[in-house]
Specification:
6-stranded parallel beta sheet; oxidoreductase activity; Quinone Oxidoreductase, Chain A, domain 1; Alcohol dehydrogenase; Rossmann fold; 2 domains; 7-stranded mixed beta sheet; 357 residues; alpha/beta
């Protein structure tokens, strides 16, 4: 089969690799119908995650069809269309039994495209399939469903739920990339008084407006003053950090009201200054987290009934074998306007038939 393989910082290729086979009785093999790219993949390609070994197939989000299963798989069968979650869950360890699958200690957590071969391929092996793939309703398009593998659960769980958004709140989302935009959309589910999006790119601020932001602000133009003006000087009840750079996190702590919440979603590669000299007296709650994907079944039901604007985040589509072109467009988002890039193989006959390893 073909797959997108990481060979070291700055080195990757769409190339021939062996088809994956069932290794454990809990495995499923999925033929990939749709896959998307993530900012984390760009970090890997730059060498920011040294634990990713050269030779690893990238990707942790996909929609596809089950073609083979191990003997212990009970919840899906060959021929079923499924969502492949970005998080793998063993279902047995303490964290999985508590529903915090992202911290799985039984061989799961974020492993696809990280510690094991991922989804940017014609076929992918999914360990612990019973808890790591989700059957899809026939009404949900693959291009829409694939956004529920990562960005919508991440924004909803780590941003909106950890931030404890409530009716009547003022919510500020710093960073209007795909995860930030999904946070704008899912925050609306809780009837806040207003949602304000902050970003540097006018195109992303326009997208935030389309997804329900009541106001937008350029990050270079003192957005904390806009928040103060809108809230009588108090600040936002909830601030979601969806960038992953120190300046964005520090901005969030300046925008939150006393007693409010800062929900950090962004992936940080550098230290950020925590100004406890200002925050200690303000009763501010700061949360961090890796997505657990416990909300995925709920989000799937909402998407199937049109309650989530998933398709609005997809700006570019490509055939699966145009992976290198798709990465180029995604990496140059400031020039291309890319939000989510989705690749898919249409029709199935163009994919080499699966041959178990």
């Amino acid at each position: 089969m073909k797959a997108y393989v990481f060979h070291g910082p700055g080195q990757s290729a769409w190339e021939d690799v062996p088809d994956p086979g069932v290794r454990e009785a809990t495995d499923a093999i999925v033929r990939v119908d749709a896959v998307t790219l993530c900012g984390t993949d760009l970090h890997i390609l730059k060498g920011d995650l040294p634990e990713v070994r050269p030779g690893t197939v990238l990707g942790h989000e996909a929609v596809g069809e089950i073609v083979d299963i191990g003997g212990d798989v009970r919840t899906v069968r060959p021929g079923e269309r499924v969502l492949v979650s970005c998080i793998t869950a063993c279902g047995r360890c303490r964290y999985c039994r508590e529903g915090t699958y992202g911290q799985c200690r039984g061989g799961g957590g974020w492993i696809l495209g990280h510690l094991t071969d991922g989804t940017q391929a014609e076929y992918v092996r999914v360990p612990y399939a019973d808890l790591s793939v989700h059957p899809l309703p026939s009404t949900l398009d693959s291009k829409d469903a694939v956004l529920l593998a990562d960005i919508f659960p991440t924004s909803y769980e780590v941003g909106v739920l950890n931030g404890q958004v409530r009716p009547g709140d003022t919510v500020a989302v710093v960073g209007a990339g795909p995860v930030g935009l999904a946070a704008v959309a899912t925050a609306r589910l809780f009837a806040p008084e207003r949602v304000i999006a902050v970003d540097l790119a006018p195109a992303r601020l326009d997208a935030a407006k389309r997804l329900g932001a009541d106001a937008v602000a350029d990050a270079r133009e003192a957005p904390e003053q806009l928040i103060a003006d809108l809230t009588g000087g108090l600040g936002a009840d909830v601030v979601v950090e969806a960038v992953g750079v120190p300046e964005a996190f520090e901005l969030c702590t300046r925008m939150v009201r006393p007693g409010g919440h800062v929900a950090n979603v962004g992936v940080h590669g550098e230290p950020a200054t925590l100004h406890l000299e200002d925050l200690w007296i303000k009763n501010v709650t700061i949360t961090t987290g890796l997505v657990d994907t416990y909300s995925t079944p709920t989000l799937l039901r909402m998407a199937a009934t049109g309650r989530l604007p998933t398709g609005q985040l997809v700006t570019h589509t490509f055939p699966l074998n145009h992976m290198e072109e798709a990465y180029d467009v995604f990496a140059r988002a400031a020039d291309t306007g890319a939000l989510k890039v989705v690749l898919g193989e249409e029709p199935h006959e163009e994919v080499v038939p699966y041959q178990a390893a």
